[in-house]
Amino acid sequence: MHLALVSVFALLYARRRSVVLLPAIMFASLMCSFLGLQAHEVLISISPLAAALIVFVAGLELDVETFMAEKEKLFLMFSIEVMIFLSLFYLLSITLGGPISLALVAIMVASNEMFVLELKKVGDERLANFGIALSVLEDSLAVFLLSIGFFTEKSLKGIRIQALEALTITALLIPVLYLFAKPFSRYIKDTSRLDARIFSTILYIFVLTSIGHALHVPEAIPVFIGALMLSIYGFDKETFESIEHYLMLALLGFISSLPFSLEADMGSREFLMSMGYGFMLALAAFMLRGLMLLISSILAGFTLEEALKISLTLANTGEFGLIVLAGMTRILPPTVVFAAMFAYAFNLTLESEVTLRVEKLVPWLISKMPRKLAETLKSLSSQAAASLGDPEFKGWMYGAIVRLILIYVLLTVSKLLPPGHKLAGLVFAMFSMGAFISTIQHTYTFFERHILSELSEFERVESSFFLILRLLLTYMALAPVMDLLETLIKTEEGLWLPLSSPISLIGMFVTAYLVNSITNWTIKKLIHQSKSKETI
What we know:
mainly alpha; 2 domains; 21 helices
């Protein structure tokens, strides 16, 4: 009966030429769960594989060429999106309360890239590829937030500890899986039989899952990192398409099983309430994601037309939201969980209708937009594009990223140091202070050079926006340095030499020089690479 109802709903969606048929599965499963019907046992049995496949395929979708060509815009837009997302979660938790805000943020944590792919059909291949790359970054954020207990951990201190542990594991896994990815990718490409390639890839997923269990971390971390490393070497296209077919089957089981995982008797009143709340959550998720993406894409230098296309096609709720929701069923009321599932289905239905009409909707929205607002957005867009083209801004941004990576590598090393070892502690202290000096110098020099001019023009909307943006980026660069310094202060008493000794000071300055040299070399490479691509 469940499969029959799924088929009926799927036919209705196919007749409407919907981009995806996933809402049909969710609606049918929710109705069957309410009526007391059961999903087929085969579907239930394959659902555990779905989460690993979703994460693995998401990592394989990274197009390295697009990522490298659009790296400045991707970094800037994703950074702004993350800051808006976290600020939004804080505001929603204050205004709406715990369960509703958690459910809303959970379903909008990442998007389904199938919608942005529709832009290729109307000739916007560059925007479509950018949207897929951005979707992969959103998936990485979802994996990280899920692994640190962001949606379930009540203590900020607990989240911070889990975040450092997750970063430590990530820093260890990246080089190991990167080295293993090359021979595995070559083996897949050299294997002639497709069934052998598929079997080997699925076996590799199980190996990555086992690594997660062995390290006592969420399996999503090694699975996602392993897939990303494979995408760097260019995973076999035919094998990837076959794995995607397996993913659709696993998704059918995963989405079908979710409503049946709740052990709660729900009457007609509660069911209709969940449906109503779900419809409102779907609209809220669409509007909030759309607004978040519009702001971040404008500030990343996209034109108003391009920003609207990106925001309208990525304002959907993705399968990562369901994975997050599945882990929250014990802390959320059943009515809210059902509402979030309805919201997923309603949102994707709305997104399909919007995406199929995006070419007509964008000019209509621009024509209906207040003139002053449109001019302000265009001004912000042009100023952002000019900033991204400025070598000085690029140098600052790359410098902040490289130093950020070095700082988290140091934090990882600090976790591996033998406790109470005075010499190892001193070496770590010198490297930490060197990284601190280098980051402060890099950040403050750029900040001081531009702060006065932007403060004098603060009354202009675009100038005030970019001042706030610079402040946020400065915070992103300095926050981990402060964390590193805090760790350093706690360990100072057990050091072999005090930090004020000449040897310690020389070590700090030598480290700062090395960090600056490494960063400057990396910046030159990245900027030269960008110029080469622009020339081509």
